[in-house]
Amino acid sequence: MTAYNLVDLPYAVDALEPYIDATTMQLHHDRHMGTYVSNLNKIIEDYGYTNLPECIFEFIGGIRFATIDSKDRSRLVFNAGGVANHQLFFSLLDPSAVDSQPEDELAVAINANFGSFEKLQEEFLQAAMGHLGSGWAWLCVDPSGKKIAVKDRLYPTLFVSTTNNHDNPSMIGISEPFGQPILCLDLWEHAYYLKYQNRKREFFDNFWKIVSWKKVAELYDRAKCERF
Ligand code: MN3
């Protein structure tokens, strides 16, 4: 039984050149993400899970409650997170979005939470640079319902965080703080090392150039509507 598929990249492997090179993209998607997909499907097959949610993001949200031997639990979280995080990450990049910026309500919410778009980028970069070892950097909607008022309108609280390995902020009971991701950045060396080697900062800076703020806004709208 194949439970989850390796979702195709939404663009050609060389579409994000020169910011992300084609070889890195191909290895990252086909080999790294591909391996997480097959490892996850192997665990699902071994345990005979049925009635899985179609959406991997729904699956990881409830992953804490999966029936699994304790020796296999971290392997399940690692591989399921690996599938979900890469699917999200690749979908958030768009060659046609070069140098785009947040607009409309998302822009207002970012200003309300961080002071400005530049300050968000600064905080995100600092978190990413400060993270030790493999992991992910995130921009999340706080699902607790805490709001920020700007001119009589309420906006969700947003926060920046990092996680280890492939933990995802939406994994209830596994990742702290709990959050609904609307943007993520892969901090693993495999994401950039072929092109950037030790120049991690340069990769992080270039990441901003290819973020699809339209896609981030879609995720923001969805996360906001689930709670507000
Ligand atoms: Mn990766």
Quaternary organization = single chain
Count all strands and give the number: 5
Largest sheet: 3 strands, antiparallel
What is the end-to-end distance?
38 Å
Uncertain runs are none
* Helix content estimate: 40-55%
The ligands bound in this entry are: manganese (III) ion
Shape: globular
**Integer-rounded radius of gyration:** 17 Å
Question: How would you describe the overall organization of this protein?
Answer:
By secondary structure, the chain is an alpha+beta fold. Helices cover 46% and strands 13% of the residues. The strands form two sheets. A three-stranded antiparallel beta sheet has the order 4-1-5, with helices on both faces. Strands 2-3 form a two-stranded antiparallel sheet. Strand 2 and strand 3 form a beta hairpin. The longest helix is centred in the N-terminal third of the chain and has 26 residues, at 22-47. It is globular and about 55 Å long. The model has no long low-confidence stretch (mean pLDDT 95). Manganese (III) ion (MN3) binds at residues 28, 32, 86, 186, 188, 190-191. Residues 28, 32, 86, 186, 188, 190-191 line the site of manganese (III) ion.
